[in-house]
Amino acid sequence: MNISQNTVVQFHYTLKDENGDQLEQTSGGEPVVYLHGHNNLLLGLEKALEGKSTGDNVSVTLPPEEAFGERRPDSELEVPKEHLMGASDWQPGMLAVVNTNQGQRQVKVVAVEGDKATIDTNHPLAGQTLVFDMEVVDVREASDEEKSHGHVHGPGGHEH
Ligand code: ZN
Fold first, then answer.
1. How far is the CA of 154 from the centre of ligand 1 (A)?
2. Where residue 140 falls among pLDDT bands split at 50, 70, 90?
3. Residue 148 is inside which H or E element, if any?
4. N or C: which end of the chain has fewer CB within 10 A?
5. What is the DSSP letter of 39?
6. Exposed/middle/buried for 62, CB within 10 Å: 0-12, 13-18, 19+?
């Protein structure tokens, strides 16, 4: 089966920056699972995967504007250290999770002083050109319920 609107796709990926340094990879762990054609994935990745089938490999390079956006310079913020989640001994360069009006997001700690931390609220991958090497591991037709909800149910998807 080929990837098209309303197929449920599983794929592994390796993410590298434009220098070829590896940033993330899923092989050895669980693949990504998503419902194709419902804005669940970066559009550039969905476009690259369109028409592919199980076993296919596809590589795509996304400039920042098609990935996580350009870095905004005015995005540093001082917060109480206790608002940072994910670790306890905070050091500059570490990634933390914070609660915002738009839900949880990942931020980078740029400085720590006393009980305060300065965080950079840009997406950690903002401003970067990203290379995704993907391998399709499964493609199936979505259920009617998944299509109406716009996301995948079951393992790797929504449990409700
Ligand atoms: Zn649902």
1. 9
2. very high
3. helix 144-149
4. C
5. S
6. buried
DSSP track, 87-133: -SS--TT-EEEEEETTEEEEEEEEEEETTEEEEE-S-TTTT--EEEE
Please determine, for residue 103, whether its predicted confidence score (pLDDT) is greater than 90.
Answer: no
Tokens 């970066």, residue?
Answer: 42
What distance in angstroms lies between residue 152's CA and the mean position of ligand 1's atoms?
A: 7
What is the Å distance from ligand 1's center to 35 Cα? 11
Q: How many Å lie between the centroid of ligand 1 and the Cα of residue 150?
A: 7
| Closest to 63 (Cα-Cα) out of 131, 129, 136, 124 | 129
The Cα–Cα gap between 5 and 148 comes to 13
Question: What is residue 110's predicted lDDT score, i.e. its pLDDT?
Answer: 94
Q: What is the mean pLDDT of residues 44-64?
A: 98
Contact yes or no for 155/140 (Cβ under 8 A): no
